[in-house]
Design brief:
This protein has 115 residues and is mainly β. Helices cover 0% and strands 53% of the residues. It has no helices and eleven strands.
Length: 115
């Protein structure tokens, strides 16, 4: 199982970024995808989840209405569209799946929101 995140970067407050999470080594379309983030000195925080076929999504209260999670099972890729970014959205963003009793994580992509 491999998950690779990309799309992070430096953005001004109010800006947007789209993160990608590409999966390989497993049947991508059979698994829900979760996005988490971690800021320095803080616990890793759940951000959003999309189910296997993409028709059910959930968001943390802190990002609801600003972030959109989606997926393209033909491309084995999940996305996190982040709009109206705030400095408190700064952190390392990770995607994961839960399979056979284990969590599999990508290496993360850094998002920095700063003027």
């Amino acid at each position: 199982v491999q998950l690779v995140e990309s799309g992070g970067g430096l953005v001004q407050p109010g800006g947007s970024l789209r993160l990608s999470c590409v999966g390989s080594g497993f049947t991508f379309s059979r698994y829900a995808i979760n996005w988490y983030r971690q800021s320095p000195g803080k616990e890793r925080e759940w951000v959003a989840t999309i189910n296997d076929d993409g028709d059910a999504v959930e968001y943390a209260h802190s990002v609801k209405g600003r972030f959109i999670i989606s997926r393209d099972n033909f491309k084995d890729t999940a996305y996190l569209q982040m709009n109206s970014l705030k400095p408190e959205d700064t952190g390392q963003y990770f995607c994961n799946i839960y399979s056979s009793g284990s969590l599999f994580w990508g290496q993360g992509t850094q998002v920095t929101v700063s003027s």
